[in-house]
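re: ur msg from earlier - yeah i can do the phenylalanine complex, just paste it... oh wait u already did. ok heres what im feeding in:
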Amino acid sequence: MEKQHQHHRGSWGSSLGFLMAAIGSAVGLGNLWGFPFKMGANGGFAFLLVYIVLTVAVGFAMLMAEMAIGRKTGRSAVGAFRQLDSRHPEVGYMGVISGTIVVSYYCVLGGLCLRYCLGFFTEMFGGMGFLGHGEEFFQTFTASPWSMVLCTAAFAVITGSILMGGVSGGIEKFSTVAMPALFVMLIALVVYISRQPGAEQGYAFMFTPDWDYLKENFFSVVSTAAGQMFFSLSLAMGIMVAYGSYLKKDENIPRDALLICGADTIIALLAGCLVIPAAFAFVGEDAYMSGVKLLFVTMHQVFFNIGGRFGCFLGFIFFLTVSIAAITSSVSLLEVSVSFGVDRRIDKHKAPRRKTIIAVCTILVFLLAVPVALDALGGAADATPLGLLQQLFPALALKGWNESFINAYSFISEGFLMPLGALLMSLYIGYKYKTTLITNECGIRRGRVLDLCYRFIVPVAMLVVLYGQLRDFLG
Ligand code: PHE
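and the outut:
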């Protein structure tokens, strides 16, 4: 019986396939528009060192823990934590909630990536009016409700369809083709940009170590780096628990966790060697260097300034790369809620009905995404539903989220639930389930250092992140 249910849940076809899916989840918009600028603005090489130390001491340990918990229990987030302690499944629920919120705004951003990809593609075959001033296009497009909703829907449908193929037939198959393709395209673009005059300014911005900055702002640098690292590794949302639950017993978890951390960091650095130098070389120092506008205004302008069919071709390749990164991440995010639904049915001894659950989750996520798509990513000021809400309840007018729905969503999920979930998770592991739960599952003999991580290092890092985020958003 148990076996049959496990069969219904699905499993990875191969170790490589799992790795590609997990790296696909980790590599996303966070790597492309978050990391490069944060690194440059927070001490350059000095930031990188802090980031790497945190990745090893905090990220690696948590990644391993999530995968081990998933495989040991054979359940996704909620079921897994319930199995470990029936009174405390809340960490799992927090993951499902924040994953669902993140995937909803991911659909809006991913939809925009698709639109830009298509735009540069059609432009290669004759002007369709896509090229022009980057900012103008962005503002007009994001202010057009139908276009935004349509793109969002398209992205949600793509995400849902990949999940429909199943764990190994859908997620794994797609990632195994898409991730190597992403890597090759990224390298090609990095090489092209490195040969352009002006690119060196970008490298200087990213890599010049600023030790004084680190000394003076140690607290905020650590908070920024740890927050970025958690988001980038897809931690604390139950993703790695779900992905781990599809793992075979002989899979080497520590090795996989190391590879995922390494690949994610390398791709973030490569992305930095692409977007920042490109912005310096083709748009100039005043260009937007981070966030939504780095991707959709500055990069649009970069390829426009490169010009001609070649510029459009490069633009197409760039946005294809970004779209792939976004799709593999959103697939993993949606899988959190899908696997939650499937596990619930299996636990009640009902047929899993994975496809129906996927359809329902996709629609729910789309509906949740509509407000984000409709307020022009903050461009529509007071006319937004959020603006109206704030007029009714002035207490909602907090600094961090009164600009747009996307800010509000990201505050609730990555700003609050994620660090809190990670904090609780590490405390549970360190003090309740005990580190041996993880070390036994991973086949590690000595777990003293890991024990220190779960009991002390991770909780402290998460408190720092939580404090930093709350201060930024509420201050
Ligand atoms: N890790 C992805 C990124 O870097 C985003 C993500 C976060 C995906 C959380 C899944 C879960 O963009």
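cool cool. DSSP finds 21 helices and no strands in the chain. ping me if u need the other ligands too
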